[in-house]
Design brief:
3 domains; five-stranded mixed sheet; 303 residues; RNA Polymerase Alpha Subunit, Chain A, domain 2; mainly beta
Length: 303
């Protein structure tokens, strides 16, 4: 037991000595200089917003041991400047100086230069308003198809920013959506196009584009397609077991489509009991577009 305890203490002492030697090696190694782009964010007093366009980053020259500089400011880390202690007047420019003390660096690293080290800011009253979201569509659906439904959810977004800038914004736009790859009906997550960084808004990552593409006319009928009931209940009953589908085959309607390639699904709501009216969904092979399911709704008894 005594031998084991001594061994453990010996290992700890050796580790500490090695750490100290490594530290002195790093400190005594030849220092180097590097330049880094550092992102900057201003903490604005409540009720106000930055009214003039300002750069979101500064150039910082650092000097120190290579080991300390290797991973410094390479992941778009931000520094924050709190404006609450600054003297300012609304709509009047005032200088903000960026000092070396504002740049967090490890011991052994020095901040040699900051460019720019002075930024002129103007503060304005911050206002909020709801603006509609406009989906930007790129490309065209096939001439045999038509886009009958198209919108975003949510349809409006609450944004906030400086009064003068907010007056110029009446809509938000999505990034271009390629309509040539859309099929039947569905939804997809979309991003908003870049907006002035002085504007802030919430839930910008939860925007969906809802669409419904339908054939202008069908050229093929698929008969006696079995309904697949999706439910956790073991006791269900429906008089409808099979349906037919009117579809558009973009290859002309001459190819053979196996029934196993087509799925019609009745998704029974979880916890449903009694008579339930369910809308049917179809999963079709590539190049086949749904026009209509006959019938589109069925009644299901759930026990």
């Amino acid at each position: 037991m005594l031998f084991n305890n001594l061994s453990k203490h010996f290992v700890k002492v050796i580790s500490l000595v090695m750490s100290i030697l490594f530290w002195f090696y790093v400190i005594s190694s030849e220092p180097i200089k590097i330049n880094r782009k550092v992102h900057i964010s201003f903490i604005v007093p409540q009720g106000l917003a930055i009214g003039n366009p300002v750069s979101s980053e500064i150039d910082v020259t650092l000097k120190g041991a290579r080991a300390f500089l290797a991973n410094l400011f390479v992941k778009e880390e931000k520094i924050f400047i709190d404006l609450k202690s600054f003297s300012y007047k609304k709509k009047k420019p005032f200088p903000v100086f960026i000092n070396s003390s504002d740049i967090p660096v490890p011991l052994g690293v020095k901040v040699i230069a900051i460019t720019p080290n002075k930024i002129e800011l103007v503060l304005e009253k911050k206002i909020f308003k709801k603006v509609p979201i406009q989906a930007v569509l790129a490309g065209e659906v096939s001439q045999d198809l038509e886009l009958i439904k198209s919108y975003t959810t949510p349809k409006f977004l609450l944004i906030g920013g400086p009064r003068e800038l907010m007056r110029t914004i009446s809509k938000l736009y999505t990034v271009p959506i390629d309509t040539t790859v859309l099929k039947d009906k569905g939804s997809l997550k979309v991003n908003l196009a870049d907006l002035d960084r002085r504007i802030d808004y919430k839930n910008k990552k939860n925007i969906e584009y809802i669409y419904h593409i339908r054939p202008k006319k069908a050229n093929l009928t698929l008969k006696n397609i079995k309904i697949r009931f999706l439910t956790s209940s073991r006791k269900i009953f429906s008089r409808n077991k099979f349906v037919s589908l009117s579809v558009l085959d973009t290859e002309g309607g001459n190819r053979v489509i196996k029934k196993t390639d087509v799925q019609v699904i009745a998704d029974i709501p979880e916890g449903a009991v009694g008579k339930v009216r369910v809308k049917l969904k179809a999963v079709l092979p590539p190049g086949i577009h749904l026009s209509k399911i006959h019938p589109e709704f069925i009644d299901v008894s759930v026990k």
